[in-house]
Specification:
It contains 15 helices and twelve strands. With about 375 residues, it is of the alpha/beta class. The chain has one domain: TIM Barrel, CATH 3.20.20.70. An eight-stranded parallel β-barrel has the order 4-5-6-7-8-9-10-11, surrounded by eight helices. The chain has a two-stranded antiparallel sheet with strand order 1-12. The chain has a two-stranded antiparallel ribbon with strand order 2-3. β8, α12 and β9 form a beta-alpha-beta unit. α1 packs antiparallel against α15 and α14 crosses α15. About 0% of the residues have low confidence. The structure holds ligand FNR. GO terms for molecular function: FMN binding; oxidoreductase activity, acting on CH-OH group of donors. Pfam families: FMN_dh.
C-alpha cells in the first residue's frame, strides 16, 4: 500500500501500521484498559443522523469559522500530541507546516520533540501550546513565559491526566522516549528498516520543552506513564487552573472537560474555550464520548464559552455532526498522526485534503453554504 492508495483516515492507519515498529504504532493507536472509550468516541457519531435539505444552491460554500479569535479554514483543529518525531523524523514541524497550509489550528504538546521557539518561528498559523502541570513550578512558569515570548495564540491546560491511564498495549510493548530496542520487539524494528534507519541515522530527538528533565537529563529511556506519574502534580485543582489562566493572561482553554458542572466552572475561571475530551480514550476507560456529551454541555454553557468536540473524528461528516450538536469545532489527534507516520508532511497534507473534501462535500449534500447553518435541527438522534 502507498500514499496514493489512502482515501480515508483508516487507510492511513493501515499504512502507518505497516511502516512503524509495533511499540510505536501501539503508542499511537492504543488506549486505556479495554479501549472501550476509544472505540465509542468514533462509534458515537453513528448514533446521530444528518438531515439534508436539497435544491439549496450550493455552488459557493464557506467552510471557515472563528475559533478562539482566529479564523480557521475548517471547523477542525489538530489536537496536541506528544513525541511526534517518534512517528516520523519530520515530527511536529511537518504537522505545523501542513496545518498552516490548510489554515488550521495546530496544537503543540508539552512533550513535543521540537521546541516552542522552533515551532513559533516556523508557522504564522494559529497555534496553541498544551500545558501539563508539573510538580516543578519553575518548569510550568518557564513554559508559559516561553510561549508568551514566542507569540502563541492560546494555552490549553490538560486536566484529564492527573495520573496516567492504564495503557496496556504500551505496558506490553514497553514504548519509551527515546525508543528502546527491546528484545521482544526487535523483529518489528528489523522489518521496518526505513523507520529504524531514519531513527538511527538522524539526530536523536529530545523533549526540549522540558528543559533538562526526562530522558535528556537522566540519559535513560522513560515511559510516558512514568513521566505522568512522577512529574505531574496530582494536587492540581480549580485554584491551580485559575492561577495558570492568570499567569498566562491570554486566550485560555481547558482540555479534558467532560461534565456540565466542570464546563460551568471553566466559564467561572474565565476560560475562553473547553475541549470536551477524554484524551482519545487513553485515560479513563468507560468515560462517555465527547460527541455524546456535547448537547449536555451546550445546554449548560452554550454561548458563554467555545466548545471543541475532541476525539474519535475520522470523517468529514463527524465534524459536521459535532457542529450540529452544538460544538464550535471538532478536533483530533490520530486523524493526522496515522498520516504523519505513513508519510511525514506529505501524508498529513493528504489526510487534511481528504477531510477538507469530505467536509465540503458533506456541506453541499446537506444543502448548507456556511458552518453557521449546521444547527441542531439538522441532526436526529436515534
Ligand atoms: C495524545 N493526546 C495528548 N493530549 C495532550 O493534552 N497532550 C499530549 O501530549 C497528548 N499526546 C497524545 C499522543 C498520542 C499518540 C495521542 C493519540 C493522543 C490526546 C490528543 O490531544 C487528543 O485529545 C486525542 O488524540 C483525541 O482523540 P483522537 O482524535 O485521537 O481519537
Amino acid at each position: 500500500m502507498k500514499l496514493s492508495d489512502c482515501h480515508n483516515i483508516d487507510d492511513f492507519r493501515t499504512l502507518a501500521k505497516a511502516r512503524l515498529p509495533w511499540p510505536v504504532f501501539d503508542y499511537i493507536d492504543g488506549a486505556a484498559d479495554d479501549e472501550l472509550t476509544k472505540a465509542r468516541n468514533s462509534s458515537a457519531f453513528d448514533e446521530a443522523d444528518l438531515v439534508p435539505d436539497v435544491l439549496a444552491g450550493v455552488a459557493e460554500i464557506d467552510t471557515s469559522c472563528t475559533i478562539m479569535g482566529r479564523t480557521s479554514a475548517l471547523p477542525l483543529m489538530l489536537s496536541p500530541t506528544a513525541v511526534q518525531r517518534a512517528f516520523h523524523w519530520q515530527g511536529e514541524k511537518a504537522v505545523a507546516r501542513a496545518a498552516e497550509k490548510f489554515g488550521l489550528w495546530f496544537g503543540i504538546s508539552s512533550l513535543a520533540t521540537h521546541s516552542i521557539e522552533d515551532i513559533a518561528a516556523l508557522t504564522g498559523g494559529p497555534k496553541l501550546f498544551q500545558l501539563y502541570v508539573h510538580k516543578d513550578k519553575g518548569l510550568n512558569a518557564s513554559m508559559i513565559e516561553r510561549c508568551q515570548h514566542s507569540g502563541f495564540d492560546a494555552l490549553a491546560l490538560t486536566v484529564d491526566t492527573i495520573v496516567s491511564g492504564k495503557r496496556e498495549r504500551c505496558l506490553r510493548s514497553g514504548f519509551t522516549t527515546p525508543p528502546r530496542f527491546s528484545p521482544s520487539a526487535i523483529w518489528s524494528y528489523a522489518t521496518r528498516p526505513r523507520w529504524t534507519l531514519d531513527y538511527l541515522l538522524r539526530d536523536k530527538f529530545r523533549l526540549p520543552n522540558l528543559d533538562t528533565h526526562v530522558a535528556e537529563g537522566s540519559g535513560k529511556a522513560v515511559s510516558i506513564a512514568d513521566y505522568f506519574n512522577t512529574m505531574l502534580d496530582t494536587s492540581m485543582d480549580w485554584d491551580t487552573a485559575a492561577r495558570i489562566r492568570q499567569d498566562w493572561g491570554g486566550t485560555f482553554c481547558l482540555k479534558g472537560v467532560m461534565s456540565a458542572g466542570d464546563a460551568r466552572r471553566a466559564v467561572e475561571i474565565g476560560a475562553d474555550a473547553i475541549m470536551v475530551s477524554n484524551h482519545g480514550g487513553r485515560q479513563l476507560d468507560g468515560s462517555r464520548s465527547p460527541f455524546d456529551q456535547i448537547r449536555e454541555i451546550e445546554d449548560a454553557v452554550g454561548g458563554e464559552i467555545e466548545i471543541i468536540c475532541d476525539g474519535g473524528v475520522r470523517r468529514g461528516t463527524h465534524v459536521l455532526k459535532a457542529i450540529c450538536a452544538g460544538a464550535t469545532a471538532a478536533s483530533g489527534g490520530r486523524l493526522y498522526l496515522y498520516a504523519l507516520a505513513a508519510a511525514g508532511q506529505d501524508g498529513v497534507e493528504r489526510a487534511l485534503g481528504i477531510l477538507r473534501d469530505e467536509i465540503e462535500r458533506g456541506m453541499r449534500l446537506m444543502g448548507v453554504t456556511s458552518v453557521s447553518q449546521l444547527t441542531a435541527e439538522r441532526l436526529r438522534w436515534r
